[in-house]
Each structure stands twice: as structure tokens, then as C-alpha cells.
Amino acid sequence: MTALIEVDGIGKNYGSVVALRDVSTVVNAGEVTCVLGDNGAGKSTLIKILAGVHQHDTGRFLVNGEEVRFASPRDALDSGIATVYQDLAVVPLMSVWRNFFLGSEPTVGRGPLRRLDHRRGRETARAALADMGIDLRDVEQPVGTLSGGERQCVAIARAVHFGAKVLILDEPTAALGVKQAGVVLRQVAQARDRGLGVVLITHNPHHAYPVGTRFLILKRGASLGSSEKADISIEELTRQMAGGAELEALEHELREVAST
Predict the structure, then answer these.
(1) Which residues, 6 or more positions from 60, have their beta carbon under 8 angstroms from its beta carbon?
(2) Which of 20, 105, 130, 232 could bond to 101 as cystine, CB 3.0-4.6 Å?
């Protein structure tokens, strides 16, 4: 099976600063590739390369088996890669259905008589959201009145509706409580089960593990390894994320100091 996305030894420098070096992973249809790491680990740099915001300096970036170098986010979108950033790029005072389309609104009429097709827009948005298991009271309500989890779900449903094959989610549960995080993770699983390849960026292994297929851990721009779910437990994933080896070495040092 050809991977939807494959990065092989990818690297990125900003002047003398090495932001990413020798990182490899794959994103397959119907799977979730989780990219984990603390702030400054290189997660943002990796997704910006995948999303067409920046170009890689070293390594290979393949989409459906063909090597690519995106010149812009539009190139990535045209290749079926949709990115939902942490700030969501929504207009809080605009209705849910208008945010759902945001630049691709359905219209009726031609020329100077062309106008928004409110009815079709509302019905399409409501049906697409319901199809993803999102039941909103009113798609005319301002998107700013929704909870953080609901707004994330609208953004995910929008990407799915407009034909994304790969969905990149940038820290979708970072600012959410337990219940709202669960709502978003359910949408991640829904997208996965519909055959999309999902890249889930997070610093929380307890959010990644229930939905993840493979786990790439980054630290200071380098990969600490990529593991399939069958090969790593939540405890080991958490230990690696927390810098388990470094903590053990520190504990050993402290014991030695205490004994002298």
C-alpha cells in the first residue's frame, strides 16, 4: 500500500538554527500518525512543511509515492492535505454555516444578480456536520458561541467535506477540558474510520494513545523514534515523552550526591 504521505530524513534549517533534522514517518489511509513533543521539539516545523508553508532543506517528502516540494499551502490543499491550526481560522461573529464554507459559499444567479444561497448553505453544513456525528442546535448561531471542542469539530468536518485525504490537526485538544477533548478525539477517530490519513500533533500522550496508529516523538528537532501502537505501551510512550532516561540519570546522580 502506497502511503498518502511519507517523509524520509526530512530536515529544515533557519539560518544557523537547526529546526528539524533527519525525521522520517508515514501517514497511511485509515490511520492516525501522532507527532508528540514538548514546545520547541520541531512539531510546528514539521507540519508547516507538510502543509506547504515552508519547504524542507534535506530529505524527501512524498505524496502518494511521488516526491513533492510545495510552493504554498494551496499546493498542499490541492493535493488533498488540509491543516486545522490551533487558532482554527474562524470568524467568531459569523454563523456556523458561513464559517463552514468560508470562501467557498454556494451561490445562485449569475453576474450582478449572483448572491449567497443561504438555504443550500445551511442544509449542506447541517447535513455534513450530522454525518460526522455533530448535532448543533442552530447552524445560524455565531461560531463564537460554540465551545472550543465544538469549534474544532466544525473545522474537522469542513476539511472532510471539502475532500481532504490527509487531515493535519495542530494541538486540537491543547486548551480543552477532559470532556471537550473527548469530543474532538471522537471526531479524529471518525475521520480515521472514513479512510482519511490523520496527523495528530500533541504534547499529551494520553490524548494520542487511544486514537493513534503510530507515534513519532520529537525532541529539539530530532526524532527519538517512531513506534507502531502494538510495539509501545502508554506507560513507555509517557516515559519517553517525559525524558525517562534523563530523569533516571538525574535520579542516579542525586542518589550518589546524597550518599557522599
Answers:
(1) 6, 7, 8, 9, 10, 67
(2) 105
Question: Where is pLDDT greater, at 108 or 243?
Answer: 108
- The CATH number of 5-92+164-259, from 2.40.30.170, 3.40.50.300, 2.40.37.20, 3.40.50.720, is 3.40.50.300
d(CA 149, CA 188): 12
**Residues in the chain, overall count:** 260
**Given this model, what pLDDT does residue 189 score?**
93
CB 207 within 8 A of CB 185: yes
Total-model pTM: 0.85
Q: Which of 118-127, 134-143, 161-170, 250-259 has the lowest mean pLDDT?
A: 250-259
Measured CA to CA in angstroms, residue 157 lies from 107, 153, 204 at distances of 21, 6, 23
pLDDT of 246 higher than 60: no
Instruction: Please name the residues in contact with 96: beta carbons below 8 A apart, sequence gap of 6 or more.
Output: 125, 129, 136, 138, 139, 140, 141, 142, 143, 146, 154
Residue 191 dihedral angles phi and psi, to the nearest 5°:
-65, -45
pLDDT digits (tens, 9 = 90+) for 18-66: 999 999 999 999 999 999 988 888 899 999 999 999 999 999 999 999 9
